[in-house]
Amino acid sequence: MKEKLSYYLENWKTIPNFISFVRILFIPVFAVLFYKDYTIAAFIILALSGLSDLVDGYIARKFNQISNLGKMLDPIADKLTVFAIAIILFLRFNQAENEVLKAFSWVFLLFIVKDVIMLGFGLFMILNGMRPCAAEIYGKLATIAFYTFMAVIMAIGPEVGAFREIFVMPDAVMMILVVFSVVLTFIAFFSYIPDVVRQVFEKYGWGKYKK
Questions:
Q1: Do 182 and 111 touch, CB atoms closer than 8 A?
Q2: What does the alpha-carbon distance between residue 145 and residue 137 come to, in Å, rounded to a whole number?
Q3: Which letter does DSSP use for residue 98 in this model?
Q4: Alpha carbon of 100 to those of 45, 94, 95, 148, 183: distances in Å?
Q5: Roughly what angle, to the nearest 10 degrees, separates helices 137-156 and 39-62?
Q6: What is the per-residue burial (b if ≥16 Cβ within 10 Å, else e) of 88-117?
Q7: pLDDT exceeding 70 applies to what percent of the chain?
Q8: pLDDT of 192-201, one tens digit each?
Q9: Are 4 and 72 in contact (CB under 8 A)?
Q10: Which pLDDT value is given to residue 72?
């Protein structure tokens, strides 16, 4: 346990890690603001969280501030943010008067299902002395798409848009954006599987895993 702790705390005092901590703190603030119907403020918090996710990765690479803790903290911040957004939008659309949107609300839970499975994989790997897989290009693309689409929905989406009095996105467009984001999310999920399987094969001496 001490060895694992030392591994994650090595060179942990970095700007990207500080940003990730701030992103995690943003989550309850965003949830409370949205719940209290301060939708514009909630939208701003969500936009800042998404932008900071891009910034911390750039800083980590540009200034060589990549750390073991950051490799774990960044995806945790992503997943907790996804949880919060998906649950909030599910609850809001599940209470919609529009029956189509009410039925569609369950699609938001697919984001949670995927991340619960990934968290389970990550916990299993950590407990068995393996390293959770770092975010790949598919994961980052899925995250960027999720933040972008959810920010647009939070801005002008039906039922929830902070600026819906000015313009409301058609229901069909919103549903297409959400489904597209779900597809990208599961493509990213399946891209992690080969590395997980490879580490399991190596850990338990089952030979070399062939893709």
A1: yes
A2: 12
A3: S
A4: 28, 10, 11, 23, 20
A5: 160
A6: bbbebbeebeeeebeebbebbebbbebbee
A7: 90
A8: 888 888 888 8
A9: no
A10: 77
Helices (H) and strands (E) in the chain, counts: 8, 0
The answer to whether residues 42 and 95 touch, using CB atoms and an 8 Å cutoff, is: no
- Give the three-state DSSP class for 211: coil
Q: Which residue has the higher pLDDT, 180 or 65?
A: 180
Beta-carbon contacts of residue 105 (< 8 Å; ≥ 6 apart): 89, 90, 91, 92, 93, 94, 96
Q: Can you give the pTM of this predicted structure?
A: 0.83
3-class secondary structure for 126-175?
Answer: HHCCCCCCCCCHHHHHHHHHHHHHHHHHHHHCCCCCCCCCCCCCCHHHHH
Q: At the top level of CATH, which class does the domain 2-203 belong to?
A: mainly alpha
Phi, psi for 10 (deg, rounded to 5): -70, 120
- Chain length of the chain: 211
d(CA 101, CA 107): 10
Angle at CA of residue 182, ends 192 and 172, nearest 5°: 165
Token pair in block for residue 15: 């700007």
C-alpha closest to that of 153 among 175, 129, 132: 175
Check if the beta carbon of residue 89 is closer than 8 Å to that of residue 107. Answer: no
Taking each helix axis from N to C end, the angle separating 15-35 and 68-94, rounded to the nearest 10 degrees, works out to 10
The residue with tokens 């009410």 is 102
- Is pLDDT of 166 > 60? yes
